[in-house]
Amino acid sequence: MWRRFGDVAFGALIGVAITLEVVPLAVLTWALVRRARAELGVPELQASMVGAVASTALGLVLVTGYVLAYQVVSDGRERVLRERREAWVGRWIRVLFQGEPPPPPPLDRPAAEALLEVREVLRGTEGEEVSQLIRRYGIADALRRRAGAGSVSQRLEALEGLARARLPEALPEAVALMGDPEPALRVAAARTAARILGETPPGPDREEGAEAFARALQRHRLPAGVVEEVLLLVEDAAPSVVAHLLHAPEATRAGIRAGLEVAGRFKLHGFVQEVADHVRHEDPEVRAAALRALARMAYVPPAAEGAVLEATRDPVEFVRVNASRAARHLPPGGALPALWERLADPSWWVRRAAAESMASMGAAGAAELRRAAREHPDRYGRDMAAQVLRDAGLEEVA
Q1: In 3D, which of 143, 144, 141, 117 has the Cα closest to residue 130?
Q2: Can you list the pairs that 370-373 forms with residues at least 24 positions away whose Cβ atoms lie under 8 Å?
Q3: What are phi and psi of 344, to 5 degrees?
Q4: Cβ(216)–Cβ(206) under 8 Å?
Q5: Is the whole model's pTM more than 0.85, yes or no?
Q6: Tens digits of per-residue pLDDT, 169-189?
Q7: Residues in the chain with pLDDT < 70?
Q8: Could you give the C-alpha distances from 7 to 14, 74, 77, 83, 104, in angstroms and in order?
Q9: Which long-range contacts (CB under 8 A, 24 or more apart) does 345-350 make?
Q10: CA triple 49-53-57, angle to 5 deg
Q11: Predicted confidence (pLDDT) per residue in 60-92, tens digit
Q12: Which of these, 38, 237, 253, 390, has the minimum number of CB atoms within 10 Å of its CB?
């Protein structure tokens, strides 16, 4: 609705603005013509003046006409395509669920886009039926060809189509395009590969695809934010991808960090020991990722309890922050003294994490936090303890 009325308003505004310029120019042109006939005796000068003003007015008229015509034509064409696509979506639903015979090939563009829209929302048996239709009509082959050649915009559009189709046989092409020289294509290919991998059934094909995908992530050095985003798209294939990121011979620090993040976000408890083993890693980013993952899993293996306590005194601030958050899952006897110490940390974030962890550790943690609000030797630690007690509703009732 906004697009439709926004286009109308834009067209009206352009029309009014250009009219305000054209009308004075038309009046000026007419006045110059009349005056030139009476006062100027040089025909060339008359023609130059009149031509300059008239050409300016004509240019403004052409620009106005083009803008308004473009608005009208594009809006009408978009509306027609949308209506045809919606009609095709209804027809594909009848084909899948009401037994209506599928249309004969070839399909026009609205029909193909509607089929991809249906595939995007269906999973399981119904999704596989749509995949078979996509293969039958040659849509997948056409998208794979377009993704490998053509302009950047055409290839991006093809990759988006492959991501919606989620056909396992398209995974090798998507992984290969993760090394394309064009950054936008690399990112789009990574997203496409992740979505395809998430739909690939368990078995050798998924394991092989997960290995290739993990290798491409580490080799082509995608931005860290993009890596984290695409790894969230692998869904059921996350354990396979994490295993290759953490244990591959060519594993990089960035890849290990990404694997730890995914293990934590998906709460892959089968990797808890591998995660704990990285708490003492030489790279502070990896240490922080391991501690973040343990905090998200809400479990610290007994063998890693000492490493987490040591990390609360790490020289790097963001490591201490994550260690303080993970410490809430340690036995109170060891965790509370370490968190008490962190209330005197120079970093506000560390003090906040320590106080919040104490507040979440049951009656013993709340009692220790109240004592800190009264007796902690650091005034900033006392203030933080009192603030978190208020935020958590744990203040003592008088």
Answers
A1: 117
A2: 370/394, 370/396, 372/340, 372/343
A3: -100, 15
A4: no
A5: no
A6: 889 999 999 988 888 999 999
A7: 1-15, 17-23, 25-54, 57, 60, 68, 71-72, 75-76, 396-398
A8: 11, 10, 14, 19, 37
A9: 345/320, 347/317, 347/320, 347/321, 348/384, 349/317, 349/318, 349/321, 350/317, 350/320, 350/321, 350/324
A10: 165
A11: 677 777 776 776 677 667 777 778 888 888 888
A12: 38
Instruction: Pull the structure tokens for residue 177.
Output: 């395009």
